[in-house]
Design brief:
Layout: E1 3-8, E2 13-21, H1 24-35, E3 45-54, H2 60-77, E4 81-86, H3 90-103, E5 109-114, H4 117-125
Parallel strand pairs: 2-3, 3-4, 4-5
Antiparallel strand pairs: 1-2
Helix pairs in contact: 2-3
Length: about 140
């Protein structure tokens, strides 16, 4: 499966790896499967690794649909979704920015994009620290 969730309860996050060509249905199926894990909690941060992701089949409409799936789950439960995205190249950075911009329209999302997996992990596991300074990815698109 191209989307793998690894729940790390002791660090209060889920490590999510996207691998290869990824479709909305695969993302939705993987999220539904993760929710069946007894350690799953909606308040766990998502640490997303897009190192090997291929989003060539995704466009804005599909990202919007994906965003709405998460809105239904998180707003319905009244729990904020915290997403830390490691986007190591321009393509996945651009797709991540679309999701980040959509997330900015809801009070139930906190999304940040990083160019370092370690910085992304640090922000995901330390929710009380706001490290928006120089650790966020600074690229011109």
């Amino acid at each position: 499966m191209p989307v793998i969730y690894e729940i790390i309860p002791e660090e209060n996050h889920m490590f999510v790896r996207y691998d290869g060509r990824v479709t909305n249905s695969e993302i939705a199926d993987s999220f539904a499967e993760a929710q069946q894990n007894p350690e799953f909690r909606l308040d766990l941060a998502h640490l997303v690794d897009l190192t090997t992701a291929d989003f060539s089949v995704l466009d804005f409409q599909k990202i919007f649909s994906l965003f709405n799936m998460y809105v239904r789950v998180h707003e319905g439960a009244g729990i904020k979704m915290r997403v830390s995205i490691y986007a190591p190249n321009d393509t996945v950075f651009g797709m991540s920015r679309m999701f980040e911009n959509l997330a900015g329209t809801s009070d139930f999302f906190d999304v940040r994009i990083f160019d370092s997996l370690e910085a992304a992990r640090e922000w995901a596991v330390n929710p009380d620290e706001d490290e928006e300074d120089n650790s966020e990815l600074e690229q011109s698109v």
